[in-house]
Design brief:
The chain has 17 helices and 7 strands. By secondary structure, the protein is an alpha/beta fold. The chain folds into 3 domains: about 1-140, Rossmann fold (3-Layer(aba) Sandwich); about 145-210, Helicase, Ruva Protein, domain 3, CATH 1.10.8.60; about 220-345, Up-down Bundle (Zinc Finger, Delta Prime, domain 3), CATH 1.20.272. Strand 3 (about 75-80), helix 5 and strand 4 (about 110-120) form a beta-alpha-beta unit. The two termini are about 45 Å apart.
Length: about 350
């Protein structure tokens, strides 16, 4: 994505872009960058941008459209949404469409910029027509796997930075998708801009904007777990569920604690515990400012053994399965109480 952005902003515009992957927000962002680069004038963009939809057009029809000269300007932009669902021609017509499409991709029209926007397809489908003719134009937008790094980079691009506690709170409560991260980050920056001083996002900024209680949240739950305080853990968890909704609140608790105990399990392995702290952070999936919290996890291993962590992960998976409807349960409070007894019993 960074290379793609840099090239577009430098005026290097390709005749075709295949934007592929589950992160629709980033695909949309890339398409808008292309449009702004092709048409500096908003009126030109409005008259010469054509949005088509895959299910309504065949590959041959798309090539015919892309081969038509634009009106009033030197360029036209054609955006095809849902390209992965492009209408397939009949088996009799398929060879003609394949040849026409492949020939165009080898020598695209100079007056057309073609943006093909597609959700992630199966790997075997990407080796077939029409994707096999688009390999040189493909740009992947995979799911966000390190939301802390993505959020930090987005903040830095806007001239801001997260304090360690703030970043931890942000990634714990925000859905790990580019759209959610970017939208919530915009709100937090707008909120924090009212303050004077450095452009630094604090934990309180995140609490206030995301709606996290300063007293009853997963970070306080983490501390109570480390103290093996069953009563306090249960009380904090019930308050989280009260604030966020029974099922959603318990889902957030399970998601956070699954990461928590998985990290403790990894840290309990002798070959990991002996590594330098920076290497430990990588093993635990903690990057950037999250490395600050490695020392906390090293301390937590005194409260939970390798076997404790293994059993906790099993209990969390059972609870997650129940929340997803794979196992029957009376209600979410029952699930929570049973979970806490297994984690600390």
């Amino acid at each position: 994505m960074d290379t793609l952005k840099k090239n577009i902003k430098s005026g290097i515009i390709d005749p075709v872009y295949l934007l592929l992957g589950p992160e629709s927000y980033l695909r949309e962002e890339a398409a808008e960058l292309v449009r702004a680069a092709v048409f500096p004038s908003g009126s030109d963009a409005a008259f010469n941008t054509h949005v088509l939809y895959g299910p309504e057009i065949t590959p041959g029809e798309l090539v015919s459209k892309a081969s038509e000269y634009p009106m009033f300007t030197n360029k036209q932009l054609i955006i095809v949404r849902q390209f992965e669902k492009i209408r397939k021609p009949s088996s009799k017509e398929l060879p003609e469409h394949e040849e026409k499409f492949a020939r165009y991709m080898l020598n695209p029209a100079e007056f057309t910029v073609l943006v093909l926007d597609a959700e992630q397809g199966e790997k075997k489908e990407l080796e077939k027509f029409p994707f096999n003719a688009l390999k040189k134009y493909r740009h992947d937008f995979p799911a966000i796997r390190t939301p802390d790094i993505f959020a930090s980079e987005r903040a830095e691009a806007a001239g801001w930075s997260f304090e360690p506690d703030a970043l931890k709170a942000f990634v714990a409560y925000i859905e790990p998708s580019a759209r959610e991260i970017c939208h919530e980050l915009e709100k937090i920056i707008l909120f924090a801009s009212a303050r004077n001083g450095q452009k630094s996002i604090t934990a309180n900024d995140v609490y206030d904007c995301v709606g996290i209680s300063r007293t009853y949240n997963v970070f306080e739950l983490e501390k109570a777990l480390a103290e093996r305080n069953l009563r306090l853990c249960t009380g904090i968890s019930l308050m989280i569920m009260e604030q966020e909704g029974q099922k959603e609140g318990l889902g957030n608790i399970v998601r956070y604690l699954s990461t928590f105990f998985l990290r403790l399990w990894k840290l309990s392995l002798p070959e990991v515990a002996q590594l330098p702290r920076q290497e430990i952070a990588k093993v635990l999936g903690m990057y950037g400012k999250q490395e600050y919290f490695v020392k906390n996890y090293l301390g937590y291993t005194r409260s939970f053994s390798l076997e404790d962590a293994r059993k906790a992960i099993g209990a969390l998976r059972e609870t997650d399965a129940a929340l997803k409807g794979l196992r029957p349960y009376p209600d979410e409070k029952y699930l929570l109480l049973r979970l806490m007894q297994k984690l600390l019993g």
